[in-house]
Queue: 2 jobs
Job 1
Amino acid sequence: MSLIVQKYGGSSVADEDKIRHVARRIVETRRAGHDVVAVVSAMGKTTNNLLNMARSLAQNPSRRELDMLLACGERISMSLLSMTIQELGEECISLTGPQSGIRTTDNHFNARITDVKAGRVEREIERGRIVVVAGYQGMNSRGEVTTLGRGGSDTTAVAVAAGIKADRCEIYSDVDGVYTADPRIVDAARPMPEVSYVEMTELAHHGASVLNPRAVEYAWKRQVEVRARCTFNDAPGTVIHERDAEGDPRVLGVACHKELIWVSLRGKDVLEKLGDDVLEAIGKNDIFVDSISENGDRRDLLIATEDIANLDSFADGLRKDFDGQVAVSTEQGSVSGVGLNIGQDADVVAQAEKALEKAGIEVRMSVSRDHSITCLVDAPQVGDALRALHSCFLEDSKQSREVA
Amino acid sequence: MSLIVQKYGGSSVADEDKIRHVARRIVETRRAGHDVVAVVSAMGKTTNNLLNMARSLAQNPSRRELDMLLACGERISMSLLSMTIQELGEECISLTGPQSGIRTTDNHFNARITDVKAGRVEREIERGRIVVVAGYQGMNSRGEVTTLGRGGSDTTAVAVAAGIKADRCEIYSDVDGVYTADPRIVDAARPMPEVSYVEMTELAHHGASVLNPRAVEYAWKRQVEVRARCTFNDAPGTVIHERDAEGDPRVLGVACHKELIWVSLRGKDVLEKLGDDVLEAIGKNDIFVDSISENGDRRDLLIATEDIANLDSFADGLRKDFDGQVAVSTEQGSVSGVGLNIGQDADVVAQAEKALEKAGIEVRMSVSRDHSITCLVDAPQVGDALRALHSCFLEDSKQSREVA
């Protein structure tokens, strides 16, 4: 008998039929003799619909009010899932983020989990109940509802798993785990049986959307073994855990950002005068900087655009604020190779650049880190670039990892 | 400078444009120098949509889970309204039922307000903020979210008004106050400038849907003066307050139930053997009995059908349980005249019966109470019967009340 946390994403509970399917899956796990805590996201497009409604009513809606609003999405799906499980004959109770003891930092709309006071969840499990927890939300020190930012339900699942010392934490979505590349772009992509925390963090940062990077970091810090699985089949999925590098550095997977903003500052004067201001201007928009590369008197910033409501006005704002002294380029994308220690291996870096060149893709800039190589390319070429990297590193039998 | 509670119903906040309109109305009240607490219902059909989704997933969903689910409807509209008010430049904060200190009885899905701990609302008002409160919900002694039953947001508004000692409590809907009859049925119906608590309670019980009967009872008990007004114009609406009877009893307004179940027990044996069982069978379904009439060895129950999810199966259940010894008749409706002391005035009762007879309507049963006369008629004749009563009592200049 194990204690299992299962997290079901929005596409897994997008309609009544899918909620029934998820309920059956949870009940099967329960009847196999396990205790189950299910963490659930909002149904399908609910969060986006609520956000769009808010943005049609207020240009810059209060984040406290936004959090109150968005938290309803997961509360709706948690109640529906709980009553469906009860209908199948199992004892079940749903708990909101605050009721589940998820404590967060104060900042609304992008809070981080600071602690999980798991008493209530544990008591309900002891009473023999399945517990359904609303993902993506918690409560701050002022007793207000907060939300955890995009993909926050993954973090809820990992944090609850750490808090109740679960034996397993399974993150369900509509794909069979973590792939060597996005299978919608690369036909030859295949699921990986295991990934280390550090590699998964890099893949997520560089655009792999299966798992939220913060959730992976949380799992890493608390050493929670996470399994990414598909809601709609019984494939084993991908285990994310601690793993040491063995043998030569090699590329484990590739990922991409279809759209980035590239901000570049050139020359010592500009850097000294404006360097901090640019970072501040970006920071005050609460936007995540994907990578910063410094090289002598130039600094390049790559900014992922997923969280920017109005990309063009954001870019124009930067251009205007810095009066043409800073180059701001949209229509950019990136492709990255990820693997333990590959960034320090000149051979791997050279192979990547050669593969892209051979495919006729101009690399505008490249950044190597410990466990990743990232190449900036024109947005329309991202697909071709990703396929070229995948073909180079992951379709050649010599390079491909053995299946564990 | 007054302290004003304004309640806006679901049709007043049914879409973004209407939310903007309500926000402007609240801001105007604020800018006229008043403190405002706005109580808000769920947008349009939200509650019904959530309820239908729940019922498609579970035959008899847990009421605790239902309350968690339905409470989201008002939380969505409160957040959206609050951010829209902020967009107009006023300080505003939204509070859920529990945050607003609404304490209720334990029973889920049909809880009653026991107390309002108004400290948080008062503090926010003192800080100069408009407060938006989610209607229809509260928290029970176990700290769980409860809902107040159909029309519960009216009760929230009255209870908050009593709790913060508001100077005014305005209930907004899409009609100009309380009419002498439902204007969708009776063309000649007109808004009444004032109604007493007891008359409003009777009108509401007998089918007038402008104000929830529990809300009126709460207002009566706490002596909160309520004004029913229209969201979309500046008509003065109807004041509901303490009012003494003056002069001869007269009919103030008429109301109807388009659909009722009529349960009748005939004979001393049946009454003794089954009387209590029938009441229990109805009670366990949490259904409101509109009126019970005892007359020698017969008892008649009229049951409003608004809260019955499946009317036919409910009626069939009663018939089967009591093996044909109890007559259960659907397809019934009722029309009622309401006015202080009219039930004790033989002349008024006779006039009502004559008016219906003249209109060719068969009265299957009639019940007179202190302040009402109710006639049971076939469901298809409800409209004609209501028009006949209205014409008899409220379109004759001698009988019609003077405008105050």
Job 2
Amino acid sequence: MSRTRIHNLAISLDGFATGEPQSLEAPFGHAGHRLHAWMMATRYWSPTGSTGVDDVFAQQFGPGIGAEIMGANKFGPPGWQDDADWKGWWGPNPPFHTPTFVLTHHARPPLEMEGGTTFHFLEASPAEALEVAREAAGGQDVRIGGGPTMARDFLAAGLVDHLHVVQVPIVLGRGVRLWDGLEALEEGYDVEAVSSPTGVTHLTFTRKAAS
Amino acid sequence: MSRTRIHNLAISLDGFATGEPQSLEAPFGHAGHRLHAWMMATRYWSPTGSTGVDDVFAQQFGPGIGAEIMGANKFGPPGWQDDADWKGWWGPNPPFHTPTFVLTHHARPPLEMEGGTTFHFLEASPAEALEVAREAAGGQDVRIGGGPTMARDFLAAGLVDHLHVVQVPIVLGRGVRLWDGLEALEEGYDVEAVSSPTGVTHLTFTRKAAS
């Protein structure tokens, strides 16, 4: 059965998944690279990286995924909708390698990139977008790619089967919070936590089987 | 050297150290006992409890402590100041066993309890209160007993040498947040995280040696 998955969603101790303000120069605002340094130190990211618990979690990102859904705030900096040449942050060969649906109020034609990524621009509710993405995924899983607002919307709508959150031991103080509006989220999931020697803690939420 | 310590401060994934509303019947509001179930399952709490990582952390509460400082919200439910007979939540023999300073705008005479606990009622800033408590501790450490607002005030004032936070895998959604106003707290500390098989994660902040 096709599942809906979120991977490598990094947050600070105080629950911020990005700092502020977000811009072309600073996609994560004042958080800089601090929320993702754990990942950049893994073999998933770099051939000389570590191969321990951080790496095995990071590696889960790709396998079994047939499509991604991302929010407009992940695709580009504020205002990208007014730049007809903007093709995302990731260069000619983005790391998605599947149909990738960008939820935006500004429709534009699909954008075929190298390596199997095609960006589709879609105005839709989470449930509608998931239906379209699942169709495109051809029986494989759908990844909710973020940002945090998008992740929160899908979680609040009860559409997520697997959630992997990486808690980084910093206090950001400001930015976009992940957990807002998700009171009692844990009731629908089996939750595990495992800390890494690098200081981050991996939390996994696995949706409970329907009883 | 006398240190200032915080122990067993439990928070939800979204950073709330207590739920709401707080009352005589529900000291932690809608959080109920969920933030402290990990501790009640340890030998520290009950003779038949567990003796693993949760227990060894819980046990750190007492040794080496010569005085406690707590906030008015920890000593009693809203309005306790108007009840001359209120002597705290803990019965005749409270679990502090040292001089214990309650920060409140409503002064009252000291209250000597069984087992070595004497409650002193004090109107003072965090730094002033710490000076008084350190004197009373006779060279031993001072514990900041909470609640979360008090802990945050002492952390923001740079007065805490050791902080032990226990993160419980629930999303409370509302209550009193621990981390607000503490941006970049980690810069002054060495931070460790260790997850327990029970699902909670213990975070310790050890103040860096002055360089």
